[in-house]
Amino acid sequence: MTLVxxxxxxxxxxxxGVLVEIAVRAAxxxxxxxxxxxxxxxxxxxxxRLALAARRxxxxxxxxxxxxxxxxxxxxxxxxxxxxxxxxxGELL
Length: 93
Description:
With 93 residues, the chain is an alpha+beta fold. It has helices at residues 16-28, 60-79; strands spanning 3-7, 10-14, 33-42, 47-54, 84-92. Strand 4, helix 2 and strand 5 form a beta-alpha-beta unit. It is elongated and about 50 Å long. The relative contact order is 0.23.
């Protein structure tokens, strides 16, 4: 679903693909994380779901929490939306 926000000067529309790209780039900014193909954003529920691959030997919970924080922070900074971020680590690199 596309994010549409009303402003005093009109409306701002951010397509799903852009929101997903923001989330992917933010997650992959965490060293040791790669985003896999399964990824969704539910704008109405303010929920991001990402499947991750993590570097072998790293503390998985810490990596996942850093990815969650990076994604939530990027979406809030760039789009002004607060989101919950669910991640699933399905592969080791």
